[in-house]
Amino acid sequence: MIEWSETDLPVRDSIRDFIAKEIRPHLDALESGSLPPYEIIRKLYAAFGLDVMAADAVSRLWLGRVRRHADADTVVVYAKLADGSPARDRPVLTFVLDRGMPGFVRGKPFKKRGMINECLRLCVECAKSRRLWGREIGRFQLIQLKPAKMEEASAMKLYSSEAATEVAMEAVQLFGSNEIQVTHIAKALLA
What we know:
The protein is mainly alpha-helical and 191 residues long. The chain has helices at 8-23, 27-32, 38-47, 50-60, 112-129, 141-175, 179-190, and strands at 74-79, 93-98, 131-132, 135-136.
């Protein structure tokens, strides 16, 4: 058992209060991934002064904070400037963009299966309407292969999600009748 000192007790109580107010009400959404944790982490940092300490450390030694998510604080972009020279001769430049910079807009996250279906729909529409040598390009064998591969990717994604659900259900059955444990596992695995 941990013995808390008089100095540690207020810190422990503050952390417990923060968890009760900021984390517990959102626990299901955080565990399922429907609520990204970044805003809560920012609140935690601000509540305990970690943001000030981090800013001080960063001012002495810059460390990037990059996440692959629409809620990222910092994004690294690689690009070639259009300076009139051939693209192969231009150097690749690196830009570090922080949230809140003028002109920097973060896009909304998108569901990949929806993206595959939309690409497929647009490509089929294009293949039917675009013409080459007097024929719809969709009549050419190489063009027909592209939507077929997109459909295959969509089907594989569907199969994978269905298989994952089936495996999760089997795991829940394996854990037995302990209702609390089964409920927790089901939420975690089927989210």
